[in-house]
Amino acid sequence: MATPERDAGVQDALLALLAASGLRVWLAIVVGAIAVGTAGYMVVEGWSFLDALYMTVISVTTVGFKEVRELDASGRIWTMIMSGTGVVLIFGTVGLVTEYLITEATSGRGRKRRMAKAVGELRGHDVLCGYGRVGSTVARELVHEGIAFVVIDVNPASLERAAADGHLVVEGDATDDATLRAAGIERARGLITTIDSDAQNVYVILSARALNPNLLVVGRAGTPSAEEKLALAGADRIVSPYTMAGRRLAELAIRPRVVDFLDAALSHGEISFSLEELHVTADSLDGETVAGLRARGLFVLAILTEDGRYAANPPDDRRLAIGETIIASGSGEAFRSARGEGPAGEAPRSVRGEGPAGEGAAVTARGEGPAGEGAAGEARR
After folding, report:
1. What is the pLDDT confidence band of residue 63, given thresholds at 50, 70 and 90?
2. What architecture is the 255-354 domain classified under in CATH?
3. Residues of the chain with CATH 1.10.287.70
4. 3-state SS assignment for residue 301
5. How far apart are CA 381 and CA 367, in angstroms?
């Protein structure tokens, strides 16, 4: 049974076949053989161009229609030569096309072209560098949030896993500008680098910043000393998985109920209440009061002002202004209602206080925006 994906693959293979340089050369040989055959009949038999062309075509294609005119000995010899040439051309064409299609199917070039085409159509996506344990976890979170992204990895095995998981992939070194461009870095919204080498993460961030200064960059730091280097390279958020894992273990020992509550609020499956962030725009929440939001089922825990400061437990008469971000708790229905009032397609982003179980991450924030996630977040002012 035909499927859209299979049909697209067949169509892509046929288009690639038509564009192949080898096929163009072979077509030139076929046209040349017909031209030589036509000229031969005109010289040997003295026929007109149309008669000579007709006789050449039916001979080369082995159709076997009746000759245009009676042939003398020279004409019969030329016809046999053209018939033999036609057999060679037919078998050669079949062999060439078959070889190309088999090579196309086994080499994965067709899939790479379709992947490159899909990546080229993305706008406002994220670029995820590295698809190890941390990178695959980040990918699952992005999928849940409905955020489009492209995976870059130099390891073919990691790319196979990413492709098998249904993600767009680009093979290559993320420190290479050409690889970043292939992933659409100049059109991307953000970059997340989870490579297990601090030096490579620094180079990735430097390269990405040079190509797109407006990126939101999140970098992984393997050691505390690497955090400052990542910040200097241009990272907006710096994540230390090992530091966060230790802090999470301590938090679970000190205040387990608080951690359980945050886990429930940030859980994908929890729909009775949630903890999320909402951005104030001219079309959404501008001029709204804290009391008004509470009446709609949203409890404002803090307001992030444009200068990067948090106003915790704001008073009821506090009015929101454009450019601010609120951290609120409420039901899923309340947040859906708030999303419906915003610009089309805008959705609040969850405040990820803790990573998935067993995969913690300490967050350091630089510049504007939320200072990081959870109790372990640190703001670098």
Report:
1. confident
2. 2-Layer Sandwich (3.30)
3. 4-107
4. strand
5. 6
